[in-house]
């Protein structure tokens, strides 16, 4: 093993942050990377060989210095995602002797003297994640990193149940194994297994293996089988007529229309719109007109996120993405959402008056740590895979309540909720799985087996604290999104075929292949024979049980016909995606797993034993309501000495995480990838995170005016008062959010219901049943909508021992409703952005009251702010009124009357109006005269309703529409939009001021929680700069300032379409929007993978242009695009191809966007005149940045580029999405030459048009605000922002309404690509 040291592992910001976390024990801390290189037998590799790919290597003799050095490296027996990709790069770069490269961090610390061992231990614990890493005080030994141990053996569990008298002993032994292995078997399942091994003829004469038992535990876990939802229920002594699942299915039984597939696959499939599928056919990107159906799914990953937030949330999103890709014969993820529930945050230096400190188990992450790490994990997976995350929610709760017996308990989210969901698309002919024929090859596609995620399905089925700490850690997986992207590219290639070669596909999730493979063949009514050693596996010491049952991520199982196997193999090899033909389907319904290494048979079971029916679960519970007391809406009972209770309430409510800005959760995510996002969270010219609904465009081509919408509704605190009301209000809130999009009809909405509960807690089972009944039998059937998909997590309690006493925190019943629907007009999406008088003339606000004047405060944010619950919660008062409201809204979407829309929800009317003012940077005067006399109840109740802005001239027309639908009495005209400089937000009654502030002051309160979290997590200097932008009332916001005419007529209509290579490497994910941009501009885009060039299948001589796409090539493990660039520079064939293209031809052009830009700047030795280009390195914020910013095209230098020569002087909003976009020159002389030659063609400007270094207007701290560079010849352009993602007009996060009328389908960035087409001639 070769050990080499690299450069600094800490940015100055991260170093400071780490020193603050360890200041009790350390005076100094520094860190460098170290690399561990294992070579194959007979090969010698030196540091000089490795330096081209490990560019930060120190001299060989370097060693970290300091009084104490701590070495952090991956846990023994694991392989990091970094290692997988770095090793891959080495092999592509002809370093064939490298078996594996691993990376660690060496920390040099100076410890304070005279402290206890406990203090030192706690300080060192901040240096590593004990879930995935190991810390040692000496360099690791080879066997600790590169596991060379012999494979662990098969284990047999001696039950001895062949005789009737031995059955009780067998049950006892199996119960012991149940605890040891964390199988989560119920007592009746233990009885069932003992009977099977005693009486099943083929099992009678042998003992079960650990593989069989572990598999059974996963396949039959609550997580996989949903036993509680299928159970019989007895409530208060009365046997209930229906199971929970029967009540859910009732909704689909009554209203199956618009649903293609329900309850039978990884996601539900819904009827979509006419559109076009855009994919490579014979290599050329082609639009094929056909119906584009869509699918929806929401999952949760609660337990892993509690144990290890980053990988837990990352694999939560990754698993749900796989669900979207493994429907029918194969499908495609499109856009996602993420939601979080945790207990109180306790932000250091920002303690809030409602927060309670109740302790937690040692090995479970704190709510603060979860919210600092889990969203990064989820976003990173989405970003790297290439799925925009465009919706979500965030809620905190820790509350002490009184039970009916007078005792108190804590309710909250120590067991967090991490929800991941979204939409995908699927071709109609692929919506259902085809039958598998006997003899068909069964394939595992994707990542190899790893020693991670053992027993995740079972662990997630237990209340936290019931299993051991070791089992909790073992159950968490690790993510490798770049691998999942590779697998998805294989699926995409197959689904683009006229005759898809995939017969049936499943994702690999809970239970690993031990669940997925049997399920695949069982669904086809078949059995199978598998060979254990054919499962791709890169950890040689794994036992048969570990290989079969581990939950290694990024895997799918599928079947193809024997005659299609060679074709499938060639697709995998092109994408460099691992796969293994692990077995074959059999007519005999028996599951057999052989192991040629040990010449054993770890599994030999009839399928009916594995999928048989252990005794049906029966649940018994009684209603056990809490002791409730009325909430004092005067607030005198809670703050008797405060003179201005409304002011106090405002300060608390706006800082509550459920209400406060979610910016710190949003900007870390890519929300523009695919170029098909019509509505994400950020709204208006000032990019305020207040959108009600997420909307995607159906497709490129024919589908650019229609789309899909999804939105969330959840009201868990209300469930502590009434679970039925909570469920109904969750559905209603979702509908109110969906109303912001133009939907065909209420009946098109389909729901996902995700149920989180702890039904073993007294009274919670009864609450669960009541809630399911409320929407399954009552509300949804009345509304005419169905729930064709969902999930449950029935272990929402956290228990631990503290001072020899058992402590617990139990979550309230938490129903997360996600609505999905087709959209008939993506240009009619209402946002909360209030329009100014100079835009629309005088305007007013209307409140649409759907609660018949009720103003209940129970379960409200206001009550929570004062540590109260209340006794009466909002509810759906009139179902017919809600239906009529939606009909009126649907009609209004066909007009231009509604200028802004926001539903009344968390925080009530005060928050609704305030958020609308934030988005529009305006003042508002609201008159409360037409509401009840209780000002606080009026301002902060969360009853069903919405606020809309209309022109004063349109009031009668709007009122008549509502009146015609029976809502005349529900309409209250109450507010005026004021476009004054002060931007005052005022509430009055009878001409007297009830409350007065300014938009900026209120928005700073609202943003403060996000700002504090951002300051801890990211560079605090950047967080401060963003916070300060709130106070500039004169800020004109982003807008379009074009120096060229852009209209539908400017779209080129050409018959000759020159070929452009849409170039990608493994991990690249921005290829589709790049291809469409060139297609729309008159080119023929051709899909070119680097393997095509390296293997000599294609030559760049075929193309007039190269388009290097955005994404995460090789996961950017060696620096953004460094692996991609190195694989070109160190490969003779590839290097020569690119050299010829850039240097020996004068008829070529090239553009590199984002990762492609980073590629070109690392290939500058091949590009004429590019030697002075900067590199693009880590953002100044130390964070991934997904933003819409203003870009200036240099008035002079733009003329010298074939791409921008018609756009000089324009200032245009554009999407950015990168973690490494800061332009840094390698020398002062490079910068001087760069400027002298006028190569900085694109740069970031503020909203006033000035070059800027202010964050986030300059999102990365780039030198001189540089965003893009050109070559001296003008034919080659590299830029970090994404013009290709906003080529569709509706894909721009904001554009003025006037543009909607003049531009047609495309936005002005199309001109960049059209100019290149004109140059080609």
Main beta-sheet annotation: 9 strands, mixed
- Give the strand tally: 51
Our measurement of the CA-to-CA distance between the termini, rounded to an integer number of angstroms, reads 57 Å
Shape: globular
> Radius of gyration from the CA trace?
30 Å
CATH fold descriptor of the domain at 1048-1320: Rossmann fold
- CATH homologous superfamily assignment of the domain at 1048-1320: Class I glutamine amidotransferase (GATase) domain
Q: What structural class do the secondary elements suggest?
A: alpha+beta
Mean pLDDT across all amino acids: 94
Approximately how much beta-strand content do the residues carry?
25-35%
Subcellular location: Cytoplasm
Family: In the N-terminal section; belongs to the FGAMS family.
Protein name: Phosphoribosylformylglycinamidine synthase
Main location: cytoplasm
Task: Detail the topology: elements first, then pairings.
Blueprint: E1 2-8, H1 12-21, E2 26-39, H2 47-50, E3 68-74, H3 81-92, E4 98-111, H4 117-125, E5 133-136, H5 142-145, H6 167-181, H7 187-199, H8 210-219, H9 222-225, E6 232-235, E7 238-239, H10 244-254, E8 259-261, E9 268-281, E10 284-300, H11 302-307, H12 309-325, E11 332-342, H13 367-385, E12 389-396, E13 398-402, E14 408-412, E15 417-427, E16 441-446, H14 456-459, H15 469-474, H16 481-495, E17 502-507, H17 513-523, E18 527-531, H18 544-549, E19 555-560, H19 565-575, E20 579-586, E21 590-595, E22 600-606, H20 607-610, E23 618-621, H21 645-655, H22 663-666, E24 677-679, E25 682-683, E26 688-689, E27 694-697, E28 707-713, H23 723-738, E29 750-756, H24 764-783, E30 786-793, E31 797-802, E32 805-810, E33 814-823, H25 837-840, E34 843-849, H26 861-865, H27 879-892, E35 898-903, H28 908-920, E36 923-927, H29 935-940, E37 945-951, H30 955-964, E38 971-978, E39 984-989, E40 992-998, H31 999-1017, H32 1020-1028, E41 1059-1064, H33 1071-1080, E42 1084-1089, H34 1090-1094, E43 1105-1108, H35 1122-1129, H36 1132-1144, E44 1149-1153, ...
Parallel strand pairs: 6-23, 11-12, 14-32, 18-21, 29-30, 36-39, 41-42, 41-43, 43-44, 44-51
Antiparallel strand pairs: 1-2, 2-4, 3-4, 3-5, 6-7, 8-9, 9-10, 10-15, 11-15, 13-14, 16-19, 16-20, 17-19, 18-20, 21-22, 24-27, 25-26, 27-28, 28-33, 29-33, 31-32, 34-37, 34-38, 35-37, 36-38, 39-40, 45-48, 46-47, 46-49, 49-50, 50-51
Helix pairs in contact: 3-35, 6-7, 10-24, 12-13, 13-16, 16-19, 21-31, 23-24, 27-30, 28-31, 31-32, 35-37
């Amino acid at each position: 093993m070769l050990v080499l040291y690299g450069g600094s592992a800490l940015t100055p910001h991260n170093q400071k942050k780490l020193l603050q976390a360890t200041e009790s024990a350390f005076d100094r801390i520094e860190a460098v990377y170290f690399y561990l290189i294992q070579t194959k037998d007979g090969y010698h590799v030196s540091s000089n060989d490795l330096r081209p790919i490990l560019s930060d290597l120190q001299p060989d003799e370097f060693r970290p210095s300091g009084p104490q050095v701590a070495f952090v490296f991956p846990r023994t027996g694991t392989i990091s995602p970094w290692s997988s990709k770095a090793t891959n790069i080495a092999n592509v770069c002809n370093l064939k002797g490298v078996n594996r490269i691993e990376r660690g961090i060496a920390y040099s610390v100076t410890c304070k003297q005279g402290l206890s061992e406990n203090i030192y231990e706690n300080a060192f614990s901040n240096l590593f994640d004990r879930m995935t890493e190991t810390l040692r005080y000496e360099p690791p030994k080879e066997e600790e990193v590169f596991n060379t141990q012999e494979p662990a053996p098969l284990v047999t569990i001696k039950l001895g149940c062949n005789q009737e008298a031995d059955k009780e002993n067998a049950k006892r032994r199996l119960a012991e194994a149940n605890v040891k292995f964390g199988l989560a078997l119920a007592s009746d399942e233990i009885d069932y297994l003992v009977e099977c091994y005693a009486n099943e003829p083929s099992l009678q004469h042998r003992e079960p293996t650990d593989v069989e038992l572990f598999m059974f535990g996963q396949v039959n876990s609550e997580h996989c089988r949903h036993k509680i939802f299928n159970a019989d229920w007895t409530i208060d002594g009365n046997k209930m007529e229906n199971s929970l699942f029967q009540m859910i299915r009732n909704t689909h039984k009554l209203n199956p229309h618009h649903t293609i597939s329900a309850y039978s696959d990884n996601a539900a499939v819904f009827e979509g719109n006419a559109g076009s599928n855009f994919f490579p056919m014979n290599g050329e990107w082609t639009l094929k007109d056909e119906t584009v159906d869509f699918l929806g799914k929401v999952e949760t990953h609660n337990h892993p996120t509690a144990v290890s937030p980053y990988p837990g949330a990352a694999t939560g999103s990754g698993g749900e993405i796989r669900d979207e890709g493994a429907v029918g014969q194969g499908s495609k993820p499109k856009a996602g959402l993420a939601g979080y529930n945790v207990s109180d945050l306790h932000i250091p230096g920002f303690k809030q008056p409602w927060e309670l400190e109740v302790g937690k188990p040692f090995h479970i992450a704190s709510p603060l740590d979860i919210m600092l790490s889990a969203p990064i994990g989820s976003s990173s997976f989405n970003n790297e895979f290439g799925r925009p995350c465009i919706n979500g929610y965030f809620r905190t709760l820790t509350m002490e309540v009184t039970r009916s017996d007078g005792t108190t308990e804590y309710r909250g989210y120590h067991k967090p909720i991490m929800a991941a969901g979204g939409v995908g698309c699927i071709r109609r002919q692929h919506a259902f799985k085809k039958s598998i024929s006997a003899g068909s090859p069964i394939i595992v596609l994707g990542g190899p087996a790893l020693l991670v995620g053992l027993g995740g399905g079972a662990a997630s089925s237990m209340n936290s604290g019931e299993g051991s700490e070791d089992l909790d850690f073992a159950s968490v997986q690790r993510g490798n999104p770049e691998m999942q992207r590779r697998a998805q590219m294989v699926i995409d290639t197959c689904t683009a075929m006229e005759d898809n070669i995939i017969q049936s596909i499943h994702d690999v999730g809970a239970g690993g292949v031990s669940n997925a493979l049997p399920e695949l063949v069982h669904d086809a009514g078949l059995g199978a024979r598998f060979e254990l050693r054919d499962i791709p596996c890169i950890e040689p010491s794994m036992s048969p049980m570990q290989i079969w049952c581990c939950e290694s991520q990024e895997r799918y199982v599928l079947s193809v016909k024997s005659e299609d196997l060679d074709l499938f193999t060639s697709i995998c090899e092109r994408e460099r995606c691992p796969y293994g033909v692990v077995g074959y389907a059999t007519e005999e319904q028996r599951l057999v797993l052989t192991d040629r290494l040990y010449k054993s048979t770890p599994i030999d079971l009839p399928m009916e034993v594995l999928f048989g029916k252990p005794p049906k679960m029966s649940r018994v519970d009684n209603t056990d309501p809490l002791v409730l007391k009325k909430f004092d809406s005067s607030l005198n009972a809670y703050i008797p000495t405060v003179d201005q209770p409304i002011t106090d309430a405002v300060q608390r409510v706006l800082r509550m995480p459920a209400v406060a800005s979610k910016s710190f959760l949003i900007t870390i995510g890519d929300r523009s990838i695919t170029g098909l996002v019509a509505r994400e969270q950020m709204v208006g010219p000032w990019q305020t995170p207040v959108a009600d609904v997420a909307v995607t465009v159906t497709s490129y081509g024919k589908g650019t005016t229609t789309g899909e919408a999804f939105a969330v509704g959840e009201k868990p605190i209300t469930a502590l008062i009434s679970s039925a009301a909570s469920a109904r209000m969750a559905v209603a809130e979702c509908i109110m959010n969906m109303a912001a999009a133009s939907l065909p009809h209420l009946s098109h909405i389909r729901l996902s219901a995700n149920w989180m509960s702890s039904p073993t807690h007294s009274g919670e089972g009864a609450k669960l049943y009541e809630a399911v009944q409320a929407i399954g039998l009552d509300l949804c059937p009345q509304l005419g909508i169905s729930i064709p998909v969902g999930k449950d997590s029935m272990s929402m309690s956290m228990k631990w021992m503290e001072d020899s006493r058992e402590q617990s925190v139990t979550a309230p019943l938490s129903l997360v409703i996600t609505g999905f629907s087709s959209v008939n007009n993506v240009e009619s999406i209402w946002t909360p952005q209030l329009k100014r008088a100079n835009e629309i003339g005088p305007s007013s606000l209307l409140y649409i009251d759907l609660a018949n004047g009720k103003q209940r405060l129970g379960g409200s944010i206001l009550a929570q702010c004062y540590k109260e619950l209340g006794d009466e919660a909002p509810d759906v008062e009139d179902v017919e009124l809600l239906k009529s409201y939606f009909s009126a809204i649907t009609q209004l979407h066909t007009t231009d009357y509604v200028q802004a829309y926001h539903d009344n929800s968390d925080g009530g009317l005060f928050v609704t109006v305030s958020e609308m003012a934030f988005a529009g940077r305006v003042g508002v005067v609201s008159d409360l005269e037409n509401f009840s006399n209780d000002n606080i109840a009026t301002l902060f109740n969360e009853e069903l309703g919405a606020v809309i802005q209309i022109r004063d001239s349109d009031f009668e027309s709007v009122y008549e529409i509502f009146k015609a639908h029976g809502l005349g009495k529900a309409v209250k005209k109450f507010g005026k939009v004021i476009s004054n400089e002060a931007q005052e937000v005022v509430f009055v009654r009878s001409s007297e001021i009830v409350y007065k502030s300014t938009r900026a002051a209120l928005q700073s309160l609202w943003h403060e929680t996000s700002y504090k979290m951002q300051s801890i997590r990211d560079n605090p200097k950047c967080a401060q700069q963003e916070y300060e932008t709130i106070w500039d009332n004169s800020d004109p916001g982003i807008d379009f300032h074009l120096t060229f005419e852009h209209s539908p007529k400017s779209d080129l209509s050409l018959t000759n379409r020159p070929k452009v290579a849409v170039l990608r490497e493994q991990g690249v994910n921005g290829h589709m929007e790049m291809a469409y941009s060139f297609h729309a501009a008159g080119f023929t885009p051709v899909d070119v993978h680097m393997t095509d060039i390296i293997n000599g299948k294609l030559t760049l001589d075929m193309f007039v242009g190269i388009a290097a796409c955005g994404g995460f090539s090789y996961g950017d493990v060696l620096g953004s695009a460094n692996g991609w660039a190195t694989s070109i520079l160190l490969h003779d064939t590839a290097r020569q191809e690119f050299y010829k293209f850039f240097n020996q031809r004068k008829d070529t052009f090239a553009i590199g966007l984002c990762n492609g830009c980073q590629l070109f700047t690392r290939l500058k030795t091949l590009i004429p005149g590019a030697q002075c280009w900067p590199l693009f390195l880590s953002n100044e914020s130390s964070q991934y940045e997904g933003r819409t910013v203003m870009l200036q095209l240099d008035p002079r230098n733009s003329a010298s580029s074939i791409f921008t020569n018609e756009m000089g002087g324009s200032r245009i909003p554009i999407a950015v999405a990168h973690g490494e976009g800061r332009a840094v020159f390698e020398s002062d002389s490079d910068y001087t030459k760069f400027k002298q030659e006028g190569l900085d063609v694109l740069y970031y400007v503020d909203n006033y048009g000035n070059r800027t270094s202010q964050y986030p207007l300059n999102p990365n701290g780039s030198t001189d605000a540089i965003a893009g560079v050109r070559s001296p010849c003008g034919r080659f352009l590299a830029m970090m922002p994404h013009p290709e993602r906003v080529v569709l007009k509706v894909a721009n996060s904001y554009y003025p309404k006037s543009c909607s009328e003049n531009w047609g389908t495309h936005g002005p960035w199309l001109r960049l690509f059209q100019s290149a087409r004109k140059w080609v001639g």
